[in-house]
Design goal:
The chain is of the alpha+beta class. It has a single domain, classed as Jelly Rolls. It is built from 6 helices and 15 strands.
């Protein structure tokens, strides 16, 4: 299949640790169907009275296998293959929905800090698909270019943790926040970022909701280490290269659901 990204786009991603792709990811009817699916899941989440805010709709594909229809779609995998090659595993996914006016701040962090000990090497690319418009007015993601070469910075507690998605963030002395870049996106556009890149987002104090769907992938040369918590990865394309065990994308992850009957834990 033809690569979705050009050589110059791939080179930019490797150098800077991110890429903003201001073009449709899915054909419009497919995107519309995904957004409708999300709205249904959000309604279910709210109706159940789950105590956590909608920023924490982590691993929704574990309880709704219909999402694999988009997670394993060629429209996404062709982008991913341009970055990590033809042997691809789905690592995780996460709807990060910031309600208007009260959406929480996401402190500066590296995704890799939350995954240490689970995979090796730390080689993950995230597709951040805009479900809603994502702008500075509603708390779009910001990335700090060229900070993707370590992945394990020093963290400290945040003040007023109830106002943040995470209770810790990278120490200000570890990076230059003034170099951060806004990932401004329209619905069905996406950004890509390396799992080690420093990024975050401001609170949504505006009048418009901001939701993104993070779809996370790794080459199958990466080894997944079980933490005995029923977390599953899935073979998305090509062949396994690390002796990993993969879940069945036609079935809900019942073991995970049974372990978290009150809703998904706050994750990343």
């Amino acid at each position: 299949m033809p690569a979705r990204l050009t050589e110059s786009q791939v080179a930019f991603y490797r150098k800077e640790g991110y890429l903003i792709l201001n073009e449709p990811v899915f054909p419009q009817p497919r995107f519309d169907a995904l957004k409708a699916r999300f709205e249904g899941l959000l309604h279910e989440w709210t109706a159940k009275g789950v105590s956590r805010s909608p920023e924490h709709m982590d691993v929704p594909h574990f309880w709704d296998p219909a999402l694999f229809g988009w997670l394993l779609d060629d429209s996404v995998l062709d982008i991913v293959e341009s970055i990590i090659g033809p042997d691809i595993a789905l690592w995780s996914s996460h709807f990060i929905c910031k309600p208007a006016a009260v959406g929480k701040r996401v402190p500066w962090h590296e995704d890799s800090a939350y995954w240490k000990g689970r995979i090796d090497p730390m080689e993950v690319v995230t597709i951040w698909l805009a479900v809603d418009p994502s702008t500075p007015a509603n708390g779009n993601m910001q990335v700090v270019p060229r900070t993707h070469h370590n992945g394990f910075s020093q963290y400290e507690d945040v003040a007023n943790p109830e106002k943040h998605v995470f209770s810790t963030e990278i120490k200000a002395s570890e990076f230059d926040a003034t170099t951060a870049v806004d990932c401004t996106l329209q619905p069905n556009q996406c950004s890509l970022h390396d799992g080690r890149l420093i990024h975050g987002s401001a609170a949504n104090t505006g009048t418009m909701r901001r939701c993104g769907y993070t779809m996370r992938y790794m080459p199958t040369t990466v080894k997944h280490f079980s933490q005995n918590d029923a977390f599953e990865i899935y073979l998305a394309r090509g062949k396994d290269r690390a002796g990993n065990r993969y879940g069945d994308p036609t079935k809900a992850n019942r073991a995970w659901i049974d372990a978290h009957p009150d809703g998904q834990p706050a994750g990343h």
